[in-house]
Amino acid sequence: MSDTVTRGLQEAEDVLVTHATSEFDVLRLKAIQGLGALKASSQLSVFIEALKDEDEDVRVDAATALGALGLQDAIVPLLENLQFDPCADVKLACAKSLTELEAAEAKPLFRELAVGRGESIQWDDGEYYQDDWDGWLDIQIEAIRGLGHLRDVEAIPLLMQALDDPEAQNLDAAVCEALGHIGAAALGALGQIAESSARIRRHNAYLFISRIRGNHSNLLMKRAMNDDDPAIRQLAFETMVERKPDIRLYEKAISDESPRVRAAVFKLLKLEEWQLMNIVMKDPSPVVQLALISRFDRKTLIDNKQDVSFRLLDLLMEAEDGEVRAQAFGTLVARAPNLMKSQLETLFAEENGHDPDVERRQWAAVDGLAVSSDEIATDWLQVACHSSSRSVRLKALAALGGVLGDEDLNPIKRLAALEVLLELCGADVDEAFDEPEKQAGDEAHPLDQRDALKAAGLDIGDAPLDEATGPTSSLGAILGHDETADDLLKEAEDEEASVLLTPSEQALLSRATRNISRRKIDLDGDEDKLSEETRITAIHLLGEQAGVQKVLCELCLDDAWEIKIAALSALVNNVERYGADNKAENLSSVLLQALHSANAQVRLFGLRLVAKLDGQAQSFTDSIVALLGDSEAFVRAEAMIAASSLDMDSALVVEKLQDASPLVRQRAMALLSQIDPLLSAEKLFGFLLENPEQSVKAYLDSEGRTREILGSALCNTLRDREHKDAWPVALSALSGLYAQGVPA
Known about the structure:
- This protein is mostly helical.
- It is 64% helix and 0% strand.
- The protein has 44 helices and no strands.
- Helix 4 (56-68) runs parallel beside helix 6, helix 5 (75-84) packs antiparallel against helix 6 and helix 9 (136-149) runs parallel beside helix 11.
- It starts with a helix and ends in a 5-residue tail after the last helix.
- Mean pLDDT is 83; it is low at 434-450, 452-484, 495-500 and 507-521.
């Protein structure tokens, strides 16, 4: 940390300490929050004094900060608040911080709170009648959690007492977790809980027993193998197979009445192929059969129908369950595409007519072709890209993207996949590369399954599922039609039904069911629309590959807006991954056309492309400046980013601080902070007053000049009583200003 930042940080601390004793509770609260954000551990006395504040929110934040800062000297005052503070929220914050501080001194109070409100503990009874909620219930769970983290062996009887209280809240999970943290000494108690008649309680007990090693734990887990609940038996078998692999476990598991228990053990035990064959012959359960199919290595090729693996999978292709038949077929396709040629021809020649069984087999075939090490598999993926089912087309395209990113696959197969993508894009394969073999080799960046699905329009992303974006969120639309959706949903509700989807597919279906408000896209049966979507998807996937900028530039000149936008988007992604390719001679003309397009989306991607081209933005200065006044707010905001590499007139940027769009104002402030730190510091506080929802962190330049200037200005404002109305915003800004520079 530089001397300038250190001095500024100290000045900020001093100002925050002053406001921590303000007559106004909102200022005291923001000051304590700020000191916590600045990790001001030297201000122990300020935090402890804040524990006595008349405002309960101040006391809560002070207690929380003391735990987060790891201040051991705060244990005694935290204990006092836990015992005597009337506010339940404060007590809860103190309990959490004492646990975080691993305060052994808290054990007596935690023991009291685990079983009741405690005779020595003061409460505000009026709080209960006012809110119709007893805050002790939350504190009880936190006290139980604390006893577990403190490994309080003496508390085990009290934990059992809390669990057995017939009038208590449900404490099964909390007590079992605490006993699990205590460890081996708590195994007797956990074993006693595991004898309960309540299935959930037993499961919680065995879950934590399984995490404790030792002979006693082994005996309890062996007992669990005979439990009435299949989920508990499965947990027991999985635990013991991992600890002590033994053929006797297999012999016991094979007679279990639950197919899921049998399947779980079969997945873990090392069995020869002839043993797998015997299991299949003796166990007709679809769940077990699917578990066995998942054991096969799909990349090992078979060239003989007399091979044991071929015979076994061929047998499973005649199973009663449709998913078993499909997965057996997909596995055979992966291992022996040549031997399955006639079946593939028949499958992809069919118009599935929304037939779930045909589509399921096509899905399985695509999965198998994607991982097969035989280069002929790519030809069949190309065929799958023309399936009558939209979902199969997207899945096949995503598989092609995955092939290109799998460096363990045959390089010839990867090159063939690239040629297929070029054809699907409508590009000239012969003109695409000077050295095609090289492009499919070591220079390519791996494209994993998530990236491939994203590029194919099936974006599960890293964001929460309800915020993810993609072509649709309707389950029926993602699967291609509602009949398949209904079929899979019914199977999912049936505990013994067989639904075998990849993790990515499961995430897609989960997102689909959560975002039912989004529009449904049903393109099945519309060949023109399907072909257009296939081409657009292929273009996005092509953008992930090295050496394709020349091709993408040609596609950017297409007459159709949809193709033009897809190509520009792919080009932006490609330049970001690989940098600008000097062989793409028409890149500048593509950019110029995009920036002056009548289509706002095209202008947007044109600006994004300019921002990715190092040192070339100056050539388009006039166009970028003109777009700062574009009629579309999202284009103006993007123009601000593109303008960051230009020698901009700060007066023009200041003007945009009054833009009607909050996003444009935000981007303008960020740009001003970059090009003129002194002026931005002068304008920033006023900007934050007018836009209180904004965080100061977004406008700090990397060199710290804005922080230095603005920090001094904020401190002066917070000392000037004539600006009291601005103090709440100033305190938040000061905290955010220096919290960013504080080491973690």
